[in-house]
Amino acid sequence: MDVLSRPVIDRTLPLLTEGYAWLPNRMRDSSGPVVRTRILGRPALALRGPEAVRFFYDERNVHRHRAIPEPVLGTLFGREAVHNLDGAAHRARKAVFLPLLAPERVAGLVEEVTAAWDEAVPAWSRRCAVVLFDEAAVVLTRGGHRWAGVPLADGDAPATARDMIAMVDGFASAGPRHLRARGRQEDRLTRLVREVRAGTVTAPEGSVLARVCGHRDADGELLDEKTAAVELLNVVRPAAAVAWFVAFLAHALHRHPEHRVPLGDGDAAFATVFTHEVRRFYPFVPFLGGLAARDLMWRGEWVPAGGLVLLDVYGQNHDELLWGDPYAFRPRRFLGRPAGRDELIPQGGGDPATGHRCPGEGLTVGVLEALAARLARMEYTVPEQNLTIPLHRVPTRPRSGLLMADVR
Ligand code: HEM
């Protein structure tokens, strides 16, 4: 019998109904931090823990090409995206991003996003109430575009933000709304790439736009217009997606108001650990997937070449062995005990320079630190609303989107 059709029961349905809890539930029933299962018609091996991270990010073990299911590739990343490449092709494409998203670029994005935030707040205070998630998406879309050098008329920011959010929101359940959003944004950015190359639009020197338009891939050729547009989108879309964490910041401040004081006082070390705890505690990426490059054995469990290998991101960020009392929100757990590279993995593990780990992690942390301080200083009330965060929905967020009233 073909190994890919061995009779292990397919678990795609429980995955869809249990969401973030699916792998942690299976891990609880297993003897070690490893589970053999079957999803999407393939055998799968799910792992977690720092050693598992190193195993997962070793290209001799796990490949990405053709690993991401079509609905996710089609709506979230784009078929031509860096996420879907391996080996030399991946390293050449990743070279576009690394200098653009490096530590010295963080301040520039923080400046643009906080400026967009400060411009937006007076309008929030003129309304009875605002949904923070929606407003943060507009702020991050404006700030992200300005920083990347991608033109965006002020009046177009709300509709563009809705498209950015729809692409991320549809990653597990792509439908026409999500596909139309991607189509619109890819068309807009494809036209922009054409205009920059034709010299009718000027890309600011050193900007993300200039670099992506001028980048040559492993074959020495310029990226075709569509691929360049997809990679531009792979910067401005995740910048908008930081809105999920902004809603979680406000949720954490509402549940634990004692953290307002150090944040509002500008305690930089506390802002960093608060941000880490928000990214650890709240659910965003459930797991990451790749394909076994050869027959693989991990902790006594086996998966054949071509089977799925899943890294249990949410489970690892809530692993009792790593964090102790993992379901308690305690930012100070990171004070004096910085998180190891392969321990805290809300944006992937390993080395972003050589593997697929998110190259935007430093930017995300920088923006969240700055916005956490602004939220802590802002005056607002949190009216009666549904603040539950359903774990079966991927990606999830507080049901109300975090309604804030009387903003000052
Ligand atoms: C909400 C905040 C963010 C989250 C949760 C997030 C999460 C992730 C994850 C899980 C990956 C894949 C890791 C892997 O496959 O091993 C990734 C990759 C990536 N992220 Fe982020 N990210 C965020 C923000 C950003 C930002 C702000 C940028 C850029 C401005 C960015 C750019 C990228 C790129 C280009 C990749 C592809 C890397 C590759 O395949 O080599 N991300 N991100």
Automatic annotation (TrEMBL):
Keyword set includes Iron-sulfur: no
Keywords: Heme, Iron, Metal-binding, Monooxygenase, Oxidoreductase
Classification via Pfam families: p450
InterPro entries the record matches: Cyt_P450, Cyt_P450_E_grp-I, Cyt_P450_sf
Cofactor: heme
Family (UniProt): Belongs to the cytochrome P450 family.
Protein name (record): Fatty-acid peroxygenase
Organism for this UniProt entry: Streptomyces thermospinosisporus
Gene symbol of the encoding locus: cypC
